[in-house]
Amino acid sequence: MVDLIDLDEKMKMKKKVIIIGGGPAGYQAAVSCSKAGMETTLIERNQLGGTCVNDGCVPTKTYLEAIKAKQYLESMGINLKLDPLTLRRACESKISQLGFGAEYVLRKMGVKILWTSASLVGEKKVKTAEGELLTCDVLIAATGSEPVVPKDIHCANLFAVTQLLELRELPATISIIGAGVLGVELAVILSALDVKVTLVEKEARILPGWDPDISRALAAYLTKNGIEIETGTEKADFNNAVFCTGHRPLLPKVTAENIDLQNTDWIYIIGDATGKCMAADAAMEEGSQVASRILYQNEREEVKTAKCIFTPFQAASAGDLYREGLRESYYGTDQHAAAMVSNMEGGFVKAVMDEQSHVLKGFHIAGAQAAEMIQIGQIAVAQEMKAEDFVRLVFPHPTMGEMLKEAVKLLCD
Questions:
Q1: Mean per-residue pLDDT for 58-62?
Q2: Which of 148, 325, 381, 403 is a good FRET partner for 272, with 20 to 30 A between their CA atoms?
Q3: pLDDT digits over 205-236, tens only?
Q4: Considering the domain boundaries, does residue 171 fall inside one?
Q5: What angle separates helix 181-192 from helix 57-75, to the nearest 10 degrees?
Q6: Where is the FAD/NAD(P)-binding domain (predicted)?
Q7: Which domain holds residue 78?
Q8: Residues 146, 51: Cα–Cα separation, whole Å
């Protein structure tokens, strides 16, 4: 690992590295390169943290944590109302704290931060918006992604998610175009803020690509909370709509001729900019790996992550979906003590194993704390743990983790 390189070796391999983009991938790249003894410059045109901290994970999860508390109290007979302005201020406070903390860490590590935009103007040459010319041995492009605006939509008021949540007054009704993770989470947020929501998805079910039982469970939860769902539709006419139709990679601006960003040995593209797994956890891992790739010319390692939905009734998935040659179990969690305490009905855990070897291949969870539970399953899958070994684990009681064990027990019967 990079951290184990001794100081003399570090100095021998000292390189000048420029990183464009200060999101999860760029931040971790700056940390790993600085630790490896490289002269590291990070260029960021807005704020550290990228989409995750400033527009995505942190703001939406702040809203959803408040909504989870509201729904739990309502299940106990205590009614309360959420104030959008107060929630927005809470988001801004958390974003500010995280950005300040990231900057503090980088400066303490000796990373030079330039608050500007930049373009690639020649062989190992970068120019800032102010005209400063910088040279490097290695360029790391961690330039993130941008939302895909749907085509052929006729809409009086079409919003991006960030635009919508910044409004002083939310519309009374709105359609959400796209029922992936963001669309589902946003539907819950807006509904809790007293907006009448219609979730529109062109595929046959919400959360296409997820386990079908998870799609059904989340659809039931959304419907229970007053959210209308339209699937299998190419609907294109809306009054108010917000689009959640995915992201596309952003790459650095190149003004020099004969530089192929994708096939140049001194350029490393990481995070969302690769167009592969567009998730903050994958981006951070790629950033952490990049220093060893630079020093030892290692190949890019595939990053395997779990998928999570952070609505109060959560969902999470790691590893393989059921297919031929695999065995699948289904454990309904409603009668488990920990699930009952959460007042979150309709949850389940599905475990998947190889029929021949009994190696665990996947876990799919719906219900309270699914995003925390999936980490246990993720480790079991990554370590190729056998079902017989997993059921020997003893989990604290009453906890959600016990339910993974119950699901695996069913595979062993």
A1: 95
A2: 381
A3: 999 999 999 999 999 999 999 999 999 998 88
A4: yes
A5: 50
A6: 15-239
A7: 2-147+248-296
A8: 9
